[in-house]
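Ticket #217: bound-state structure for adenosine-5'-triphosphate.
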Amino acid sequence: MLELKNITKVYTKGDDRFPALDNVTLTVERGDFIAVVGPSGSGKSTLLHTVGGLNQPDNGQVLYDSEDVYKMHSRKANLYRRKSVGFVFQQFHLIPYLTVSENIKVALDEPGSRSQKINELLEKCAMSQLQNKYPSELSVGEKQRTAFIRAIISEPDILLADEPTGNLDPENSRVLMSLINDFNKNRGTVLLVSHEVETTSFANRVITLHSGKVINK
Ligand SMILES: Nc1ncnc2c1ncn2[C@@H]1O[C@H](COP(=O)(O)OP(=O)(O)OP(=O)(O)O)[C@@H](O)[C@H]1O
Ligand SMILES: [Mg+2]
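RESOLUTION: The complex was predicted; output attached.
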């Protein structure tokens, strides 16, 4: 369903060059659960952003059902980013002037829809009492769980999760991993960046990045 072909990305700042991805090729099948590991700065977040249609590579292609994500017309590209992909950003990217429940509903076409599912997920993530708070009033782990619910509420095909348990205590981390596992069992495709060995144990494949290169597959 997803094919990355020879992806290269170099960030530049003035004359400085920061290579982030170096000729990355990867095929992802529907229902795959892929863990992406590697040292800090190895290109993991860049890879996820590139797959998510948020970061155009300098070279190479990202194909979703054989169509180049970066050559889609803007309407289709927006649909891909909004419907096909759910993203948990490493820095959460919650909207500061919206409450927890409003932030989650941003992912829905109809704000009033799926309220039962939202309540269920808030409950599971121990967030029910916090749904009227603003991001600045939340702990880091609470922001992370809000970002996670927002990413899966619209039932995307692909979940791109950048260290989604990085700030969670063991109990919340376990709950969130079991929700990701449920998502995957329902044919959802998962690309998960993680430093924690326990979370990679759910994956059917682990790929390791090193200086922007995939060193195993
Ligand atoms: N916007 C940017 N401008 C310039 N360089 C960048 C930018 N974003 C990332 N980089 C550089 O690209 C490389 C890969 O960064 P990336 O964020 O993908 O790494 P990462 O593997 O996610 O690291 P971490 O584990 O710390 O989150 C790093 O050298 C980083 O400094
Ligand atoms: Mg990162």
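RESOLUTION NOTES: The chain has seven helices and ten strands.
TICKET STATUS: resolved
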